[in-house]
Specification:
This protein has a domain of about 70 residues. The protein contains 6 helices and no strands. The termini are far apart. The protein is globular and about 45 Å long.
Length: about 130
Amino acid sequence: MGIFSKIFNKEQAPETLLDQFNKTVGPLLASEYRKLGQAFDLPPTEKTSNHEIVDTYREVGTAFHQASEIRKERLTAGVKNRIVWIFLQYKEENNEAAFREYLDSEVKYYLINGLRPEYQKELQLFN
């Protein structure tokens, strides 16, 4: 097969679960956080893209999930949703470096002291 036929007949890689998530759940997730922001006049606003919302959800959720496993605790989806919303607000109002520092310090705080009271409230998305 020549170079041009390889380029033009290139087979598509099979869609991954992450691809499916990004297409379906990602926009819904971003929409729910935007509705919350609008209802309370808080971020995330249009300054934060849907992609950033989903990435923040994954990053913050994963960090706290891993910390909860170390503490041998289980954080509910509602608690993780609440934590992510707090971080989305912080991220939009600060720069990336400050966000990273905040995430690091809050995960360390959780590992040492347990979950802050403001993080313990359930936030149900998709009601």
